[in-house]
Amino acid sequence: xxxxxxxxxxxxxxxxxxxxxxxxxxxxxxxxxxxxxxxxxxxxxxxxxxxxxxxxxxxxxxxxxxxxxxxxxxxxxxxxxxxxxxxxxxxxxxxxxxxxxxxxxxxxxxxxxxxxxxxxxxxxxxxxxxxxxxxxxxxxxxxxxxxxxxxxxxxxxxxxxxxxxxxxxxxxxxxxxxxxxxxxxxxxxxxxxxxxxxxxxxxxxxxxxxxxxxxxxxxxxxxxxxxxxxxxxxxxxxxxxxxxxxxxxxxxxxxxxxxxxxxxxxxxxxxxxxxxxxxxxxxxxxxxxxxxxxxxxxxxxxxxxxxxxxxxxxxxxxxxxxxxxxxxxxxxxxxxxxxxxxxxxxxxxxxxxxxxxxxxxxxxxxxxxxxxxxxxxxxxxxxxxxxxxxxxxxxxxxxxxxxxxxxxxxxxxxxxxxxxxxxxxxxxxxxxxxxxxxxxxxxxxxxxxxxxxxxxxxxxxxxxxxxxxxxxxxxxxxxxxxxxxxxxxxxxxxxxxxxxxxxxxxxxxxxxxxxxxxxxxxxxxxxxxxxxxxxxxxxxxxxxxxxxxxxxxxxxxxxxxxxxxxxxxxxxxxxxxxxxxxxx
Length: 584
Known about the structure:
By secondary structure, the chain is of the alpha+beta class. It has 23 helices and 16 strands.
């Protein structure tokens, strides 16, 4: 697909903006690499060492001891919730510090009055059940912990998001995705059961077909505002030692790139094979195990498709093995970009190293924090310390830099129907001009309830490429980096750009990832996300009047004492109304 001339004539042009005068914070951002290298990196290494030691000690514990400790910790959470006085104490949230959260939101609700419950002890892998093919884990177990245990067993979570530090609880309560989501859906779709502590201290087990099935479907995207997940059973799949990865360069307009991306994985989802991904049809076997796309400019991208492969196959003469996990290796996104010059090529990557391919460079955000960190000399000397912990980056940035990033930086994941990818890429080029752009497909399953996130109405009557009778194909489009306007020294209104993006999503049945900075009003928040089933669960399980509401947690800006008291008063009124409804 080589139509650069056509691309030039049809490409939407970015908004032209006046030049921006530099202020002190610009220089603080420019030299942010100094505290990053001399403070964040050494401390990150110490934290990683502590995590490693903690993992070794945890692995020594017997399964019975881990189970006993889990029950004791659950009992502590129950006692803490029962200590709360609704008339005296604030609304409930976890005691996790704001800077510990991986998301980019300010977590401003934790800077106001609240009633905290400590969940920091829930970081154990409780059981790897190879018969039922599920992993039973606590909410603070990270993806790095899990893949370290499961990959040597040739097992993996069905959806294993790329960042080491992402936790099970966050991925269930918000959202999680990986290159296998075009088969298995979002992370929450792979959850088999959840153990949840409710507002009144009851502990229940929710599955899709037991008496708490409504809670099972209500927890995803709820941001922990219905109850506390204290354990989850998650689907495991069998894998092989390597990923056979094909890099395919694409050139053309943004819509042509989007079509090439769709064609790279959804060719087998034709009308004749809309059955389960686990089926035995020949066409189903053509679906790659992993899919990822990166758009490097308005006219160039690279699509990657991976298939699990045995060590025997990978080590055959003539096959190339790329150990991307070595500290001195080029950052993955830059290495993939070489396909634009080399043409299509194939190589084998050890599976766990492939899973965490974007961790060292924080996708491509590390380039902004330490501009020379991608150079060979830095990778060779200090690459083993990368990446700096996001927690430490937040602590060292200060209020001024934090506000600067909100105004002059974009970190947004948006979920859009597959057939809308070309349109959102054009919108992003015009309003954001952020490159590279990450593309990752995922199935959005049709649930038996009106969940917060659901496919377009009637999609099954008019199926498009990638759709099936029970799921619509969506794509996570990731915009992470400084906008072109900022890099050119022009004015850029980050809040206004995000508002425009949010309105585009509402108009096109898209969704904004909840870790990202949001400018949504309460009315627009519930236009984007369906509140029907969420409100039902909040009322039925007593969360109203105890837990913060989803929008309250999402709302940008420091909460004033007046806002906090208004939210608490509103919660008490809602709780009384819910009790009255239940009595009727």
